[in-house]
Structure formats: structure tokens, C-alpha cells
Here is the input.
Amino acid sequence: MAGAEHLTAARAAVTSAQDLLDAAAAALARQSESGGKLVLDLMDEHQIACYDLAYAASAVDGARRVLDAYAPLGDTEALLAVANAADVVADLRARVDGRLPEWGLDRGDYDKTVGTSAVTDFLDAARSAAMVDAVAAAVCDVDGVPGGPSHLD
Here is the structure.
């Protein structure tokens, strides 16, 4: 699952997630300002969305960093980086699904970023049972005894 095309798809999905987060951050900033200044009372009205945005932003940044730093180190690392990216993007989709207005977004924002068929196809492949099996095989021997690269301990 972690061939070059899968790494490309993972990076594209993470970029799409960042694009959605950028739109949400801009919208929440607009909703939380008055007179060109951030107003904490207005921000508090959007506290849950702001929290979810901060959480998701750190996860998306982490996924990008893992793809950049660890995927080039080997097949096992690439598998783990792709699986992580998929989980991060799927989590973001779950956080915003049904709550787009709370994030200052609309269906169009979702559909052109994390809701594209390319992102959905990536998630279908990267979160499949076959992917889980591939990750398990990469980090464990057939008998279930740890046998993957020692630096993954």
C-alpha cells in the first residue's frame, strides 16, 4: 500500500485537510473579531470548534511531518506514515461532518477539500483491512513475534 502513488495520495489528502483547516481558521477568526481585533468573548462562542480546529491542525501538521521525515526511511515507515495520514484525515472528516456551520464552513468547502473522490479513494485504500494486514506484516513476524525494524520499538 505504500508505493509512490500511495504516498502521493497521502500527501494530497493531508494538503486537502490543511486547506479545509485554513478555511475554517479564517472563518472562525472573522466570527471572533470586532473592529479588526480578536474578541475573546466572541471566540468563546465558538469554543468547541476552535478546540477541534487546534486539535486537528496539530494532527494534520504531524501527519505531514511524518510523511516528510519517515516515509523515505523504508517500506515499513512509509506504510505507517500512510496509515497515520489516513487516520488523521478521517478524524478531521468526522469532526466537521454535520458541524460545518459551527466551523464557519459550508458543504462546498468540504466537497472541494477532504470530500473529494480522490481523498475518499485514498481513505478507502489506506484504512482497509488489507492495509492493516500490510502494516501488521511489516512490523511483526508471521508468528506475531516482533520482527520489524528495531528502531520501531
